[in-house]
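Hi Q.,

Before the meeting this afternoon, I wanted you to have the adenosine-5'-diphosphate prediction in hand. No need to reply - just skim if you have a minute. The sequence and ligand are here:
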Amino acid sequence: MVHAEQVRKQFGKLEVLKGIDLIVEPGQVCCLLGPSGSGKSTFLRCINHLEKVDGGRLTVDGDLVGYRQQGNRLHELREREVAQRRRDIGMVFQRFNLFPHLTALENVVEAPVRVGGVPKADAYEQAQRLLHQVGLGDRAGHYPAQLSGGQQQRVAIARALAMKPKLMLFDEPTSALDPELVGDVLDVMRRLAAEGMTMVVVTHEIGFAREVGDTAVFMDQGVVVEAGDPLQVLGEPEQERTRAFLSKVL
Ligand code: ADP
Ligand code: MG
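Predicted structure with the ligand bound:
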């Protein structure tokens, strides 16, 4: 589903991704860990067309990110084509970014109706079902300000799922939450994983990564330091840098 080969990205002179190799098979959960500034968010943003890759090769579901292939030739995607591709990728951020003036239900309904062309009645029915799935069936009429951070984050997940993505990206989805609210969000993600969703999750929740991750990738300073079975990478890391990081977050 995601295939990165020597992916590079720089901002001016600052090399942020220095040749990232990473593979996420369909249905797998890949957990991305590493210190602040190591390039995790930038990498997710590249997958989701929010940043342009400067070098290497990055494909999502076989399609080269940013390009359309015609015969042997590559054409840069137009804005409309980028938007089209992005619909297949759901993204959940640390900050929930819900529309404050819309209820939970309206937040979930918005994209399918406005962008997806889904008939309103169908979209509302689906949104109600999704809110139920994330444990918020009884909060549909609440505005974001009336919900806890954990509830808002679950609405954000429901909203991303409403576009029926084939890939979900999570960027530290629980980092901004009070500790007692983290569990409910992780439970929703755990269920999503069990249902077969392909996910790339940037997280410092080592327990989640070990239990739910099919692979764990430890990044530092724009390179993959160590990757593989989460039990190995997070339990018996080979690299000193990985060990040093884990001893800080555990
Ligand atoms: P992480 O998510 O692992 O904390 P980021 O991908 O957010 O790391 O950032 C990696 C590096 O890239 C940091 O040094 C950050 O300051 C820099 N960076 C990120 N986005 C930009 C940008 N738009 N312009 C310039 N520098 C950026
Ligand atoms: Mg980040």
